[in-house]
Amino acid sequence: MTGTEGKRDVSAQQTIHVGGEWLSAASGATREILDPADAKPFALIAEGGTEDADAAIAAARKAFDEGPWPHTPVAERAALLRKVADLLVRDREEIGLLESRDAGKTLEEGRVDVDCVADAFRYFADLVIGEGAGRVVDAGSDDIHSVVVHEPVGVCSMITPWNYPLLQASWKIAPALAAGNTFVIKPSEITPLTTVALIDLLVEAGLPAGVANIVTGPGHTVGARLADHPDVDLVSFTGGLVSGTKVAQAAALGVKKVALELGGKNPNVVFADACATEEGFDTAVDQALNAAFIHSGQVCSAGGRLIIEESVRERFVAELARRARKIKLGRGTEDGVECGPLVSQQQREKTEMYVASALEEGAVLRSGGKRPEPADTRPATGYFYEPTVLDQCHREMKVVREEVFGPVLTVETFRTEDEAVALANDTEYGLAGAVWTSDQGRASRMARRMRHGTIWINDFHPYLPQAEWGGFGKSGVGRELGPAGLAEYRESKHIYQNLAPQPVRWFAG
């Protein structure tokens, strides 16, 4: 890929940014980035290691301790964030295309991701500019002035996943910068290119050197160092449960602040009354497809568990499977393509393993369950897998318990509202869930009883930058977005001033 005229080529080998300079890896190592639509390399990046991570952390530490950014007036920080949003709008097509090619999603999904990233930068700019000078605390005396203020945490390590590389980076970078922090970010080694492009835009917007640093490289070296380095004050990680646990353990040794978003096994609960009309039925089926198969199911909030009332199960699942078979697979930039490939061969094999185990445990295959024929992927030949519907599933199945991160939908049934709640909550995770019903009382009861960080009623997948995002249970610790997302990157400080000090006389002598 070539960059726009006058801009650095983000797919070039110098993808490590430390202290204001673009660098190759200290070791000279590189990594090929594969296009998942055809499994062919299309970019070459630096493969950083521990030495590069140490240099980046040192640059971020110096920029925080000695540089201007933590003390830059809020209005100026907000103005820079808005400028970044404007640059994202300017480069929407280029970055959207890069995200499509790198992560395998459709071009339209890539464009929407860029729009959402711009929204996040604007939101956090507006949030900090609208704040006061601190929260005044009533100490019960006119002689006492007491206020709680917020200060940046310091140096932040950020480790992001491969499925939404640009979006997940923005959910960390925007609030961190708004709060006055410096950072080092490690994107996934298989989808790093749009994060590199975002750092380019931060530089173009005028961010001081050393505030934003990026090291492209693997998790077991770069990610591990970002988690355990003594000069890091906060670690924010989005990814799988196993890796997230290791990050938390490493960070705990240094008593660092930790924010973890570790995925979900998200229920989509459909009551019969939501399907009482043809329009309602059509909408619920359409949204169930959207919940499970957008970005080939590689979404932490994917509605991969359809929990449907028994009386409408057969009709609903039959129509769902029929439509799933018609989803058009292919390269995300091709006209008419509705779903791209999985991100890697490893991810496709993992999906195949889950489907095989489900069939062995008694699930009934209603659609998909295999790799498509080459002629069905228009004509890309990468890591494709057909949208798969598995009927007659139950909680003991591996595919129901664990996060697949592929285009696989399992179907469970219920008869009563209590049963529906029990099934929806019968998971170690608790990121998101949805309920479909025309009964407002039932919708309210379900929303209160479902133990998940986001509950959608008669919808699936939308989020707002103003509203917190995160989960219960093993879905993680902390929140992104919203005021709580900004608070993650701050420390609270209580300043207590006695305007008329007097002796205490506690001690007689």
Automatic annotation (TrEMBL):
Origin superkingdom: Bacteria
Chain ranges of the Aldehyde dehydrogenase domain: 22-495
User: Which InterPro entries does its entry note?
Assistant: Ald_DH/histidinol_DH (IPR016161), Ald_DH_C (IPR016163), Ald_DH_CS_CYS (IPR016160), Ald_DH_CS_GLU (IPR029510), Ald_DH_N (IPR016162), Aldehyde_DH_dom (IPR015590)
Q: Name one Pfam family in it.
A: Aldedh
Keywords per UniProt: NAD, Oxidoreductase
SUPFAM superfamilies assigned to the protein according to its UniProt record, in alphabetical order = ALDH-like (SSF53720)
The record's active-site residues are 261
* Metabolic or biological pathway: Amine and polyamine biosynthesis; betaine biosynthesis via choline pathway; betaine from betaine aldehyde: step 1/1
Entries under Gene3D superfamilies matching the protein? Aldehyde Dehydrogenase, Chain A, domain 1, Aldehyde Dehydrogenase, Chain A, domain 2
PANTHER family referenced in this protein's UniProt entry, alphabetically: BETAINE ALDEHYDE DEHYDROGENASE, BETAINE ALDEHYDE DEHYDROGENASE-RELATED
Family per similarity comment: Belongs to the aldehyde dehydrogenase family.
User: What's the protein name?
Assistant: Aldehyde dehydrogenase family protein
Identify the species of origin. Streptomyces anatolicus
